[in-house]
Structure formats: structure tokens, C-alpha cells
Specification:
The chain has 166 residues and is an all-alpha fold. The chain contains seven helices and no strands. The chain has two domains: 45 residues, no CATH class; 104 residues, Cytochrome c-like domain (Cytochrome Bc1 Complex, Chain D, domain 2), CATH 1.10.760. Helix 3 packs across helix 6. The structure holds heme C (HEC). The site of heme C has 22 residues, from helix 3, helix 5 and helix 6. Heme C binds next to helix 3, helix 5 and helix 6.
Length: 166
């Protein structure tokens, strides 16, 4: 067992050289130690931009949104912006003047007439949430328009009754 001390020594040298190598790796040799991982006892990385923390601000549902005030002023300009959105995204189903007679309306069991008083009585926040989330057959438009464009569209939807009674 004379060899034991020298064996231990060489084992020690191997281990320490090995771990030094693992720490000082050239950039093309990625490993779990030097990679961009969160190591134990180290602070987590900052969340990616535009993400919402689990306990952060939530996207409101339709009920919660119903009393949101419309932050976009009701002007000819905002209604014109809403009209552009409507013509692009909504008219194909709800019809050019909201009567529920768009080109593909017949393929749905029910295509609401947006000029009817019960729709016109909806609060701005309620219509806003419908546009954002969609419905059973209606697709969501959360990713198609900016927040301001959606609120402008609400102003435009609210012009339908006026046009209908003219
Ligand atoms: C693919 C067809 C389709 C498109 C596009 C569409 N909708 Fe709808 N929408 C529906 C259907 C169908 C309903 C009835 C509820 C359901 O089944 O989702 C509805 C319901 C609604 C309602 C509620 C009416 C009610 O009876 O309570 C509103 C308001 C509305 N849509 C507005 C819009 C607006 C504004 C757009 C454009 C951003 C739009 N919709 C785009 C199909 C569509």
C-alpha cells in the first residue's frame, strides 16, 4: 500500500484540474456549470419583457371589464379609426352596417345584429371585452388591434343604432 499517497495525490490533482477546467471553459464548450442557467442560491433572472408575473396584473374577464371607462375620447377621428377596424375585422360576419348580414354570416347559427338596442345598451367595457376575447363562435381580436384601436372600435359600434333609425 505504498502507492496509496501518490494515488491520492494524482486523484486530487485530476479532480482539481478537472473542476478548474469546467469553470474556465472556452465559449464554444458550453456546459451546465458555465451556461446561462440559474444556479442554486443565486437570484433568478429578470422576467422577459412584457410578461405578467403569476401574482401580477391580470387581463380582466368580461364581467370585470364591464365598467371600465372608455379611455379614448369619442371623436370623429376615433370613430373613423374604429370604422377602419370594423371594415377589416368585423364586417365579414356582422355586416357592413352591423345588421348581422356579413358574407359568411349564414354559416353561423346566430349572427347578432349589432344595431339592436340590447347590444347598443351594452357598456363600452363589455363590448371592449367581447372584442378582446371573442365568444363561442366569434374569434378573439386581442392580438389584431392595439388597445386604443379596440376602444375606438367600441365608439364605432355604438354608432350603428343611430344609423339604423335614420
Ligand atoms: C367569424 C365571425 C365573427 C367576426 C369576424 C366577429 N364576430 Fe362578433 N360575433 C360573432 C358571433 C357568432 C357572435 C355571437 C356570440 C358567439 O357565438 O360568439 C358575436 C357576438 C358579438 C357581440 C355580442 C352580441 C350579442 O348578441 O351579445 C358583439 C358586440 C360583437 N360580436 C362585436 C364584434 C366586433 C366589434 C367584431 C370585429 C372586431 C366582431 N364582432 C367580429 C361572430 C363574429
Amino acid at each position: 500500500m505504498r502507492l496509496l499517497p501518490s494515488m491520492l495525490l494524482s486523484l486530487g490533482v485530476t479532480l482539481s484540474v478537472g473542476s478548474a477546467l469546467a469553470r474556465a471553459q472556452p465559449p464554444f464548450m458550453k456546459n451546465m456549470y458555465t451556461g446561462p442557467v440559474v444556479l442554486p442560491q443565486v437570484e433568478t433572472r429578470a422576467p422577459a419583457e412584457d410578461t405578467i408575473a403569476v401574482d401580477g396584473v391580470r387581463v380582466l374577464d368580461r364581467i370585470e371589464s364591464q365598467h371600465l371607462p372608455n379611455p379614448v375620447p369619442n371623436t370623429a377621428e376615433s370613430r373613423a379609426s374604429g370604422e377602419r377596424m370594423y371594415d377589416v375585422y368585423c364586417a365579414v360576419c356582422h355586416g357592413a352596417t352591423g345588421q348581422g348580414d356579413g358574407q359568411i354570416a349564414e354559416h353561423f347559427t346566430r349572427m347578432p345584429n349589432l344595431a339592436l338596442p340590447y347590444v347598443q345598451d351594452y357598456t363600452d367595457g363589455w363590448i371592449y371585452a367581447i372584442i378582446r376575447q371573442g365568444g363561442r363562435s366569434m374569434p378573439p381580436f386581442a392580438n389584431s388591434m392595439s388597445v386604443a384601436e379596440r376602444w375606438s372600435l367600441v365608439h364605432y359600434v355604438k354608432t350603428f343604432e343611430v344609423e339604423r333609425t335614420q
